[in-house]
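Reading group handout, session on sequence-to-structure problems. Before we discuss, look at one worked example. The prompt was deliberately terse, the way you'd type it at a terminal:

> structure Hemerythrin-like domain-containing protein

The input record follows.
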Amino acid sequence: MAMYEMKPEYYTGIDFIDQEHKKLFDIANQAYELLTNEFIPDKYDYIMEVIDELKDYAKYHFDHEETYMTSIKYKRFLSQKVSHDDFIEKINQYDSEIVDEQQRESLLDLLEFLTSWLVEHIYKQDKLIAEAE
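And the output record:
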């Protein structure tokens, strides 16, 4: 059972954006599965892997989305860009030593952040891109 799923209301109707959002949901699920997996006592390497994947994929997705927004002369581009930059900044703030010492807390923090981001950003901001076309 996936904790995070792309519900119908998250779809923008812009195919590549929806596919990339699905991937972000998948990464969030990896983090959740890691949190609930009691068979891995030391999760440090796995957590760092998820953080790195999130960092790389988010950059790829945001570049893609921003290029698209520019191409349609999207009026809310700047607020989107700020939002994207905040996301990257937050992910960059994960300090490997702190993650190592506080694995559970780091995962919980990451999941809380991803939950609010996926809901707030995709549902409230990205949906508007499709309406602008």
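Points for discussion. First: Residues 28 and 104 are 15 Å apart (CA to CA). Second: The two ends are 35 Å apart (CA to CA).
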